User: What shape does this take?
Amino acid sequence: MHNTEYQLSLEETDQFRQQGYLGPYALCSPEEMQEKQPEIEKILETDAPDHKNRVHNRHLDFPLIHNLATHPSIVTRMASLYGPDLLLWRTNFFVKEPGAKEIPWHQDFNYWPLEPPIIISAWIAVDSATLENSCLQIVPGSHKKVIPHVKATSDMAFGQMGDLNYIDTNNHVSLEMQPGEFVLFNERTLHHSEANRSNKRRIGLAVRVILPIVKVLNWDSTEHHLIGIHGEDRVQINERS
Ligand SMILES: O=C(O)CCC(=O)C(=O)O
Assistant: This one.
């Protein structure tokens, strides 16, 4: 059973429906996350068994990452929003060293092999994330509209970006976070981060969770699999033979 202390209020679930995001909330204290940073740095220096990219799916080989991704502070809140049955699909680190490029405005559903593309993400600050070192920024309410995505310009960190002709970022919110804090957002919430113009590294860990009705069309590797993190999978459409 997950701790009821993390269950969301009606006001919070309503905010998520209206704004497409919630938080920041604390997963652990800044000091506790700072204690974990050296191990996280080591993990990022080792090859991932399941995938050629070191920043992907390290919850599969490191309990520390699994425990962060499945912390009751995250999972109980996700269950308040999406119901009891939740599957962990992916994790990935966003490491932005000084000088790192802008991550363009985008909606996550555009990139992912999921049908239907229903995903709730938690983005956990490993380092402190401030305006100075390119914290996550989102547009409240943007999840109500699907934005076409086009080829990104060469100054961007992604190959595709939301078409700026359809995007109004005037009311964007900067999600500054202490280490150990996280936010929740959904697959259509427009978000981005500026180029890191500071001399401070900024690492975040994104946790992607799906519902059992979501079919995974493409796996990262043969070892990649879903992990039940709350409730049960009554549908089993992703059982791999
Ligand atoms: O870490 C960032 O700057 C971007 C994160 C992001 O795009 C995501 O979590 O989907």
